[in-house]
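Team,

Forwarding the record for the chain on the shared tracking sheet. I've put the sequence and predicted structure together so nobody has to dig through attachments.
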Amino acid sequence: MKNILFLLVLLSVSIFPQDYFFDHEIGKFNGASGFYIAPSGVLYVADKETNEVYKYDTTGRELKSIGGYGWDEGAFDQPEDIFATMLYVYVPDRNNHRVQIFDKDLNFISQIKGSQDSGQRQSGTEDVSFGYPMGCVSSSLGDIFILDSENRQILKLSTSGQFISRFGNYQSGDYELRSPKSMAISQDNKLLVLQEGEILVFDQYGNGIGKIRLDIQASMINITQNNMVLNSPSKLYVYNTGEERSGIKEITLSGYDLNDGIAEGLIYKDNLYVLTAHQIAVFKKKKAE
């Protein structure tokens, strides 16, 4: 709780620049919508225009792609985002009202259907009703959290996909989701939901434990290791959650023109990865002189 309260102050105070310079590109996409780097360094990308998901190794070499438009297993209708652990890959399949789960090699394992139509529900999943999922993350304990954009709430499910609880809805009082944009999970299993002007912080049980006020415009939030990255289509910001007095830093980029705008950003082993609609630009941190 101490760290969350500290964030309430820091993220609304001052911004210090942090410089990165362009190193190389990864991939070619039509309309990339989300990406994530697993703890192993493997990179996964979702492309909502081609309805495909890609896997790259640590050198940027494409290892596999799956998908195409459809509603069968392994097909998609606008994969909204992507999240990966050492073992699993979670893809919110927005217009199919489901989350598909794959192993680390993108082999289909299972799906969590959220159709509001009771005739379409899977047996034993009557409580799992959601629509147009825009995010899905998994905790270190294996619990699955789905950001339900249609009903503005978060669903918590077990590793096997069984319903546990829902929160962030009208019953959550001051922690009701008004216009959720993106969701991330920290190393200590706190859920952070970005919406206009603030980040709502929940513990793994769905209790609201803090609000982070923002004086910046942001459309996405991403957390890898201790680095929380926020971005708008034109700017990137980073906050190191492991250094309480580091402050939020605006990232400045050199050597690359982001004509396509910024879809999402994340930091892995001091490298900054910036996803645009058509590629991933990789930047290295400028050393202090």
